[in-house]
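Ticket reopened. Same input as before:
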Amino acid sequence: MRRDAARSRLAALGFGDADAGVLADHFLDAERRGKRGHGLARIDWLETLPDLDPTARPVRTASSPGFDRWEGRGALGYLTLAAIADDLVRRPPQPAKVVVARDCVPTGALGYWVRRLADAGLVAVLTATSPARLPHPDGGPAVVGTNPLAIGVPADGGPVVADVSMGRATYGDVLAGVATPDELVPFGGEHAHKAFALALGLQLLVDSQVGDGHGAVLVALRDEFGPSGVRERLRGLRIPGDR
Amino acid sequence: MRRDAARSRLAALGFGDADAGVLADHFLDAERRGKRGHGLARIDWLETLPDLDPTARPVRTASSPGFDRWEGRGALGYLTLAAIADDLVRRPPQPAKVVVARDCVPTGALGYWVRRLADAGLVAVLTATSPARLPHPDGGPAVVGTNPLAIGVPADGGPVVADVSMGRATYGDVLAGVATPDELVPFGGEHAHKAFALALGLQLLVDSQVGDGHGAVLVALRDEFGPSGVRERLRGLRIPGDR
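Engineering reply: fixed in the latest deploy. New output:
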């Protein structure tokens, strides 16, 4: 029901059936996981974008055994990551592949995409840049994005998915009204220099591959040793990414 | 002078000239950067190891355009990472390579190895597992290593190197007497679940590639867009990895 309503609103923006389904599924999964900043509020936000091109399609511009390069070509980052995930599931890495995506924004909840790959048996690590929102812990203007790092690994009972933004809050949380702008600082309190270092390192990593603009870097690997017994070892404790 | 003394002690343990030089340079760099847990105290520690094999040599057991696999074969992890870095500098990734190392422990200050690659013009991301020392933020026994993540990127004025352990303290800091064992918890205070999620994700990532024992996963990429002006943007603020 909610899915139909979400798809209708996306269709009204001009998205085709398949793309509207990809977007609705991502937003609804974010809602179910309590990541409201990546949820249905994003449809409101899409409705405000003056230059949204719902017909734009990402393109794989280079491919070699261990490396693929993609360009969003004006498509939403969600759709670029969905196309990359589809491609990796269809042509699994033998045994590993680095994927770089230029013009890839917004990327949504990165955990969603690595979970999809882990559901297909792949190990995946994904980061993406976003507009500068975090300042250095010692002050000054915002210099790096919240630049999340997501890691998905197949495991007994379903993938384990770590998905960590380097901010105390995400910009999506601010958009959704569940965090205030002053929470857009590196997380960690007295150890905020650690989260800042990760945010800056990930920023420069992605920048080194995509130049100007926002992008994503993904590493996908074959799972060589099968499901780990991590849920057994952590019995009774909350596993990252579990609802 | 200190280097000669360090090399002598390493030679007395049976290490050849080249390996003693690699180890001494790593330990002395850690001392200079205030990472005493990865510094000369490690020579004391090596002197206590009953089954140290100073003649063991790491071996590259598989290689394809985007992927290499290495095994430590009983060599210290430092020497395995040094061999991998040498190999990547000699045969740079075209344009990216994932490297997995089994039986690769201890790995020292990961920032040292990615800096070496960044000095040679490569972008590098490196993680490695270590014995379980961090508990879940909600309690229980230690379940994951401090599993650092290091990112090195060429930049004007020298590489930017983020090197972040997921613990409030590293085990090396405890060994060196600059931290207490109760600091072996995920960093971040009220956001410690984020550091724990990263430590667990990195643990499962490496485990998926090396199975039992400790290992490392490295991604090296060509720097496609040249030095960033990050030092300009962060003028007056401390850059991660700078002394």
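The beta strands of chain B are 59-64, 67-71, 96-102, 122-128, 134-136, 139-144, 149-153, 160-164, 215-222. Chain B touches chain A through 66 residues (CB under 8 Å). Please confirm and we'll close it.
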